[in-house]
Specification:
Elements lengths: L3 E5 L5 H19 L4 E4 L4 H7 L5 H8 L3 E4 L14 H8 L4 E7 L12 E7 L9 E5 L2 E4 L5 H16 L4 E6 L7 H13 L6 E6 H10 L6 E4 L1 H14 L7 E5 L4 E5 L16 H13 L3 H17 L13 H10 L2
Helix pairs in contact: 1-9, 1-10, 1-11, 5-6, 7-8, 9-10, 10-11
Bound molecules: nicotinamide-adenine-dinucleotide, 3-isopropylmalic acid and manganese (II) ion.
Length: 336
Amino acid sequence: MNSKFSVIYGDGIGPEVITSALEVYEALNEKFNVGLEYIVVDAGLSAYKKYGTNLPEQSINAISETCCLLKGPTTTLEEPGSELGVPVKIRKRFDLFANIRPVKSLPGVKSLYSDLDILIVRENTEGMYSGAEYMINKDVSIGVRVATRAGAERVFRVAFREAEKRRRQVTLGHKANVLKATDMLYKQVFYEVSREFELVKASEMHIDALAMNLILKPQQFDVIVTENLFGDIISDEASALVGGLGLSPSANIGERFAMFEPVHGSAPDIAGKGIANPIAAVLSLKMLLEWAGAQKAASSLESAVRSTLSEGRALTPDLGGSATTKDLTKEIIKNI
Ligand code: NAD
Ligand code: IPM
Ligand code: MN
């Protein structure tokens, strides 16, 4: 494997939480001799101001020469005619078709549930994220929802393989009662793929009912697999069950490359205040280390995060404390 990873600091709280993750990485590297170097790549608003695009070609080329990417959240411009966001572009460009978003209770965190371990597997390249959106005239617009057999097969296989390592249950979240071509195809392919995994129980739930059940009876879920937009929405919802976005990491996985980023965005409401929770970014680093084969460092990092939260000496405001990003980072490093 390539011995370099790339880093995008991102916008808003991105530089704050990625700086923490990199400080944690330095501590792990010192202790476990992980041996991965990293390069910083320009993307997001800073790149847009310099180059007129949020993801210049030279950044894509630099990322291509690394094993994987640690990405901070980037702000997406929201004006008519503006380009797609950085994560969507990278997922498409590197064909990172499975977005893996763990929803796991952590000790010492005041939250709705303290006993959850759910894995959301979100299709990451199709659905409403095709970029095919058009104004027909000034009052009418359409968007194309893409669903392909190949796209469905590969992400369902990831979900079933993950379930084999866990409690062997996969639930498909869909809306085939209304989306009679796109989600019907996904549903058909889901049951076809399920036959390759005899030991895993396959079930389905309409995504609206699933959204409710996630709040009422989340313990019933092991792996949830769903299309792109549904997966986006339920992953923020599910993070709220275990303490919120400040704690939720993700992995965007393809055949040859992977990108690791917090589920959260650039949080303009708290940017620059030094109070963002760095744990989502730090746990994204943990997922990167696992993917890169640095298992010891990854396990040590997870234990350090758990101890830090249990001790509760430095909790950021989203966790009910008054610590800064830096205080919490220092505690994690102490616990490594
Ligand atoms: P957001 O996730 O940035 O914020 C939602 C709420 O969660 C805010 O109140 C925020 O303060 C809080 N929050 C988020 N992360 C936190 C953390 N680490 N610690 C403490 N509190 C935290 O969502 P939004 O406001 O809808 O989006 C803001 C911008 O981020 C938009 O431009 C959006 O497109 C972008 N975004 C980017 C990514 C990405 O790059 N992967 C993901 C989501 C949103
Ligand atoms: C996420 C984000 C992105 C998405 C946005 C910023 C494009 O919300 O990673 O969940 O919708 O996929
Ligand atoms: Mn999202």
